[in-house]
Design brief:
This protein is mainly alpha-helical. Helix content is 56%, strand content 0%. It is built from 6 helices and no strands. It is flat and about 60 Å long.
Length: 147
C-alpha cells in the first residue's frame, strides 16, 4: 500500500507553521514541530520539506535561540493583570522574526538595485507593469503531429 503524499506547502501553510513556532514553548525539535504541524494542518511533512522553506527554517532557528535564552525578554506574569503572558511572548517572538525577515528583504532589494544599476536599468524600466497573463487554454496538437 502506498503512502499518500502531503499537499505542497503554500504561503498560507507556511504562515501557519511560522505562527506555531512563534507561540512555541518547551523543548523544540524538528520531530515535535512535525507532530504539531500534523495535528493542526492535518498533513504530515518531513523535516526536509519544512527545512527547504527559508521562512520556516529561520523561524525555527529564531525560536531555538529564544528558548535557549529564556531570561532575555520574558516578563513576570504577575505584572500583567489583564493580558495573558503567553500572548505577549508570542507577539514578541513574531515581531523579532518579522524584523529579521524584513531586514533580509531590504538587503535583497539593495542587492537587486545595485545589479540593475550596473546593467543600466533605470527606475522607469524597473517599475513597468507586468505583461498580462494569457489564461486561454493551450491548443492541443493533433495526434501524431508535431507543433
Amino acid at each position: 500500500m502506498s503512502r499518500r503524499r502531503a499537499k505542497n506547502l503554500d504561503d498560507e501553510a507556511i504562515k501557519r507553521i511560522v505562527e506555531i513556532l512563534d507561540g512555541w514553548s518547551g523543548v523544540l525539535s524538528w520531530q515535535a514541530l512535525i507532530e504539531q504541524v500534523q495535528a493542526r494542518l492535518q498533513s504530515k511533512y518531513t523535516r526536509q520539506a519544512l527545512h527547504r522553506h527559508e521562512r520556516i527554517r529561520l523561524a525555527f532557528e529564531k525560536t531555538k535561540e529564544r528558548l535557549a535564552n529564556p531570561g532575555k525578554k520574558q516578563r513576570d506574569p504577575a505584572d500583567l493583570v489583564r493580558v495573558p503572558a503567553g500572548r505577549i511572548s508570542r507577539l514578541e517572538a513574531e515581531n523579532d522574526r518579522l524584523q529579521q525577515e524584513n531586514d533580509r528583504l531590504l538587503e535583497q532589494f539593495v542587492r537587486w538595485a545595485y545589479n540593475a544599476h550596473t546593467r543600466g536599468l533605470d527606475e522607469a524600466f524597473l517599475n513597468r507593469p507586468l505583461p498580462p497573463v494569457d489564461r486561454r487554454p493551450t491548443k492541443q496538437a493533433a495526434p501524431g503531429r508535431r507543433q
